Amino acid sequence: MYFFFPLTSFIVSTLTTSSLSTSLSPGDEEFSPTPDSSKVLQKCLQVHSVPYSNSTSQNWANLTTPFNLHLPYTPTSVTLPKTPEEVGNSVTCAAKAGMKVQPRGGGHSYASYSIGGHNGSVVVDMSGFDDIVVDRGGHATNGGYGYDSRLWGLALDTIVGLDAVLANGSFIHATETQNTKIWYALRGAADAFGIVTYFYMQTQAAPEEVTYFTVNLSSTLSSANKVSEALLKTQEFVLNNPLLTPNTSFEFNVNSGGSLAITGMCMFCNLPFFRDVVFPQLVSGFDIDSQNISNLSWIDTLATLAAPDHLAQPLQNYSLHDTFYVKSLVSKSENPSPLKPSTHFFTYILSHQSPETPYFSIINSYGAPGSAIDSGALSSSSHADMDALWVFQNYGYTPNHLPPWDPRITRVIEGMTDAVTTAQPAGNFSGYVNYVDPDLTAEEAAEEYYGARTYDRLLAIKAEVDSGFVFWNPQAIGNVGVLPVDVGEEGD
Length: 492
Hints:
With 492 residues, the protein is of the alpha+beta class. The chain has helices at residues 35-47, 60-64, 84-96, 137-141, 149-152, 180-189, 224-240, 271-282, 298-306, 339-351, 407-423, 442-449, 452-465; strands at residues 2-6, 52-53, 77-79, 101-104, 122-125, 159-165, 171-174, 195-202, 209-216, 248-255, 260-267, 290-297, 324-332, 359-365, 388-397. It has a domain at 2-202: Uridine Diphospho-n-acetylenolpyruvylglucosamine Reductase, domain 3 (2-Layer Sandwich), CATH 3.30.465.10. Helix content is 28%, strand content 19%. Keywords: FAD, Flavoprotein, Oxidoreductase, Signal.
């Protein structure tokens, strides 16, 4: 069974195959609209009856306040389409005015790309496409991890079809067998290729109950060696013990306050067996300070995992914001972490615990035998992390979650990530595009989020579908030309 879901913000673009060089790219320049271009845009939107807001509108502040208050930008206009035709006209009007387009779904871009990533964009707000589900945009098309992903795959893996608007305003339907190049590009790099108006998604029957667990392991942080050895025991269990099935997903969470915990869930599991047999081996190297392992309903599990936020969120006047900087790190199943990088990481954690530079680091379990995340070929989509074992999200924020920004926080997060990579130079680490780092150059982003083979394939598709570079952000496909492919890099 599958359903279609209206909504979203994904991108589908157009470059020419002969123009695969940096000379095509607008790079990091600003695209400040001229008075004439703003008038052209406004007149075109009015002629086509596309709802929109600009700086004179009463709802402008609500529409343009970013999730990450550290990175504010000012769009030229925000269109508010309710039909695919209005989406198409939003794109063609922006192109006619010579402006760049950024679609917005949930609006949670860590780099504020949901308001353009620079000043002067036209934002296409997809909150009007809410018949079934909302806020799935970039989350689904750039991967989309959840606690059910080791069993059912990433959100991206559930997509069986997409309706999208291209840079020229035309409409396409893409599947595994139809418009296959766009299908490949939208599933992993959508923000450079088009605006998805409908998802067709394979669904699963939710379990009636889920075994939820959250366990305090903070005593193990008494030394970097102790916690590192414990983490390696968990990694060994994940990679080699058949007791850990894809039904179980979990994360470690460590923070600047000296806390360490493991949280996760097991679907379709026997509670006593998981609690008494599986879980003790999963955390055999850790000291347990307190634990909660219990069965909850599916909805109660989701609500518990989302806390303190609510599952239901408003389409407009969204009030959850933060002031933060993030770096991600993806370790590969083929290169499990030895003791040294883990020790360096936790040594750094224990030596940087100032309340003036607060942070947390989440380490999600992705791979291991049987995981649905790494069951597909790397060439089946443009998402580059199908071979991930662990995904780190290193997240620093201001003490009151508000501006102004303290650059010391950036340095702490950079140092946390460097502690791992410098200790394992052959680790073949990558990054996760949903945890986007705005400080990366376009070339660094291309290498970290896609790798040379995937990026160069996307660049060729970009050349075919968005030669005007209508869809753009500072790290979009096409900001740099062809990347050199390292010897031994996995092919398609």
